[in-house]
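INTERNAL AUDIT FORM
Audit reference: QA-55
Scope: verify that the stored structure record matches its stored sequence.
Auditor: D.O.
Record contents follow.
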Amino acid sequence: MARKDSVNRVCLAYSGGLDTSVILRWLIEEYDCEVVAYCADVGQQEELAGLPEKAAATGAIDCVIKDLREEFARDYVYPAIKGAAVYEGVYLLGTALARPLIAKHQIDVARATGCDAVAHGATGKGNDQVRFELAFRALAPEISVIAPWREWDLRSRNDCISYAQKYEIPITASIAKPYSMDRNLMHVSYEGGMLEDPWTAPEEEMFITTVAPELAPDESEELVISFDKGNAVGIDGTSLAPSELVEKLNVIAGRNGIGRVDMVENRFVGLKSRGVYETPGGTVLHVAHRAMESITMDREVMHERDRMAPRFAELIYNGFWFAPEMDYMRAAIDASQETVTGDVRLKLYKGNVTVQGRRSPFSLYSENLVTFEEDEGAYDQRDAGGFIRLQGLRLARAEK
């Protein structure tokens, strides 16, 4: 907890929603300080116009909005795809990937505007408090951190609404909202409210980027994704910047009912939490990238990367993006992707993504070697006998 007498100006991660609007005013009242509101556009597709005026009406001395969509796709989403980062088998880490980027630019804004503290709206039960604060610690250990949900006596959404009404804070929230939602270019996440019962199915009206698989078109849709050194660079022959490519895939995959996940995950703080996610474009990218690797990566290199992948995903989930071990892993993953170049053809149909073909100038696949027809002497099948005998030496049981 920051000392109140040492805080003169705070940079607050601000969305204009209920929580951060209340936090903005609470900081002014409790810390007797100035507040700079900071909003990161990571593809949440919310209307950002009017946000500076709303922040000013709540008491902020400034509001800084940064468009981080391209950086998010290029420097966070794409590395996760290359590293096969999937947490606990199903979660593609959309929220976890955005937090270090948001925190990084929050530190930049704090320094540029003369702030001696930063604040966030993450609760004391979740992962985001860890992700934000580990990033702050790595990038600017000299800057104080304020986490209002761990300090104040507000304990519920109702309390926040009452506080907003007391200070005439302009909000549009209602008490009846049945869940919380976080959206960015990579995904949409839902938790809390009705979803806290893991036996209760999410309502169809909740989803905003995907149709239900059974309501998707009855005709399949095919597309070709091109890769260069593990990075997706185009769709159907058209070159696209990372953010453009992810946005386009979100639309294509979403209308085909692809990318929904419902899971109970293990939070870093020790709790189990039920989360529902929509990751349409990211799901397609993971499938396509794996197919591209299948013909371009050396077997042992692929297996080593795959051994690393769960740990890589865990580091992202737990908030260690700026840790030394992450630098090491990312360097190794980048090295594994040098030849992951070419095209993958996919079929999308009612929630499913299937690979139809793959090709690469660096392909390690040899039709002449694997053919069941005449191979012109490229492979002597008699050699396999000796290979098997050597492999079986340690398995042979000695006679008693």
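Auditor finding: record pair retrieved intact. The CA atoms of residues 112 and 300 lie 47 Å apart.
Action required: none
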